[in-house]
Amino acid sequence: MTGVITPFRQFVLKVHSRCDLACNHCYVYEHADQSWRGRPKVISLHTVERVASRIAEHVKQHDLEQIDVVLHGGEPLLAGHERLAAISTALRTALDGLCRLGLHLQTNGVRLDDRFCEVFAEHGIRVGVSLDGDRAANDRHRLFASGRSSHDQAVRAVERLRNRPELYAGLLCTVDVANDPIAVYEALRDLRPPRIDFLLPYATWDNPPDRPSETAYADWLIAIFERWQADGRPTSVRLFESIIRTGRGEPSLTEAVGLEPSTMIVIDTDGSYELVDSLKVAYDGAPATGHDVFHHALDEVGSHPGVLARQGGVETLSATCQECPIVASCGGGLYTHRFRAGSFDHPSVFCADLFKLVSHINDQTKISPHTVSFSSLDSLAAGFGGAAEIELLANAQRSLRRALLAALRPKTPDRVWDMFTRLDQHHRDALEAVLAHPYVRVWAVECLQADGETTYLANVAAAAMIRAGQDVTLPVAVAGGAVYLPTVGTLRGVDGETVTLVAQQGRVTVMREGAPEWHAVRTVTCGDFSLVLEDADPYRDSHQWPAAGTLSDDEAAAWQDAFERAWLLIEKEYPQYADGLRSGLTTLTPLASAGHDVSSAARHAFGAVAMARPADPAMLAMLLIHEFQHVKLGAVFDLLDLYDRSHTGLYHAPWREDLRPLEGLLQGTYAHIGVTDFWRTRRHAVEGAARDKAEEEFARWCGHTVAATETLLASRALTSVGERFVARMRETVTSWQHDA
């Protein structure tokens, strides 16, 4: 039995079951489980000895080097100086020589005096104080039964602990979105705690939290996170640091997030073992195990279903959670928060908040923990991928762009960087829209690789300011006699390498003599779907063929007509690609005509496809599908290692004469799934010679693509994920081989 038990390492020991405050958000007294009424007010020393004996037994069985015991309540200080000293002595005596014992105590602080501090110092007890912020915030819930404030006494307790820093463990704050987040944060920060714990209120789907907006709790915590970051992280904030750690693949510091198995058990004043204390909000008896220290060893309670449910990792989460791209960080949230109608097989009642908070912190800390579930991976590998899968790729690209921006920070003028900071705080959507322009990343990569100048960042910042409706005056870069502002437009007829841009009330010009011409960015549209028709970006010439020059009005009109007809065709005949294209394709770049249909996707230009305008709108539809396959796979490469990148082998691609490296073959094969599917469907939409051509093209590309997947699988250079990916590619195309 011992071999299958995950040992307990943290023990919450209830030393008193009553409290001297009447906090109306307390999970012990104010919710469904009222078992405290039948429990002894204070734990007996006989019970403490049995507790100590059981813990010592458990430590020996599992050869544990460190365990922690938290003295809790109710209010533990109600147990008194002598009883707390005796409890500590019993625990240390039983565990002496067996393991390291960390003793902790969590209190509301109102009874903390110098004598308690002496006891804590003698027994090595570290103390945390529950405090919800400034007086207004704290008095919203933490009051005496008479309605009197507890704030001054709690703060005095903290001041005592600050004079004994070896005792001061930190502050615990329950989130209430009715409070001012910055006022709460500043009040806690100014008490100089070693750590702050922010706890989401204990709620369930059956008893949901007060929620003024869908992500009110995320927004409240994000405001604090931003200020904490700006302050230089003056203290540890366990929730934020746990999200950052899980984003790096490290274990969480709290059970509130992350996938680590819970190793905590609660022992009440009567010696009964209970599950996580917060379960008292779910239903009467929810924390009960039916086990106690007098009759049951800890290994027996370790096999309780309620314990195992909090130790099974992602497999024990709801189907929704298992498919979530941030599940490795979120972990489904606190177990209690998942309860609904007798079951915990649900996402957290704070699901939307956790998703927004985790995503925001990952973005801000330049971490890209964008995990891909197997179902999402399989959908992409099949050659498709809907809006959800492409959005996952797009989110990962956003993190990569922010990482590139951060890498450029040392060479960026403070004025420009300050502008980015303000935009990020107040106009993030406008900033993200500009950063997402495909050729911004192309420029950033080239700049870093060549150790180039960062003057162009001012153009990016100015574009975001204009999109946000803000006035701006800023020195910007000139290229080819033009000032280009990504996603916004171009000033043409400008001399020099840099000029001062002036944008006021929507009018854009430069601070100089003369009148440069302003040209708004071109677009092509069909219904509510719009793409940038990129004929001006100085960094767009990153494709296999040269970019076309500035389009005439007639040429732009021809592109509009061709795109509209091509997109209508995609929506009608190729709807399996439409949602993905809508979610990820942002830019269409004209290439110089080479007398035949040419197209391209650039490795670092996520969201862009380039092509010479074909005469046939159906061919334009095919090229959009084909090149966006390259865009998708490039984004997958940014997330996952599908092959051994040190592999140098070259392979035959059926559609080329030269041998290809593995990445090139994989890219070509994946793109030709789209080509094969295009002709497979096209056969049934045309007649006569056009149908014969479609049949011929389908047979050719289907055979080529199947053969290429076989070559890839035989290469022995794919990772296990890569093998799964290519096997799914092959499955898709082989299923079409006998398609009539």
Automatic annotation (TrEMBL):
It comes from Nonomuraea turkmeniaca. Gene3D superfamilies: Aldolase class I (3.20.20.70). It comes from the Bacteria. GO terms for molecular function: iron-sulfur cluster binding; metal ion binding; oxidoreductase activity. Keywords: Iron, Iron-sulfur, Metal-binding, S-adenosyl-L-methionine. It holds the Pfam family Radical_SAM. InterPro entries: AKG_HExxH (IPR026337), Aldolase_TIM (IPR013785), rSAM (IPR007197), rSAM_sf (IPR058240), rSAM_SPASM_FxsB (IPR026335), Sulphatase_maturase_rSAM (IPR023867). This is FxsB family radical SAM/SPASM domain protein. Coiled coil: none annotated. Residues 5-233 form the Radical SAM core domain.
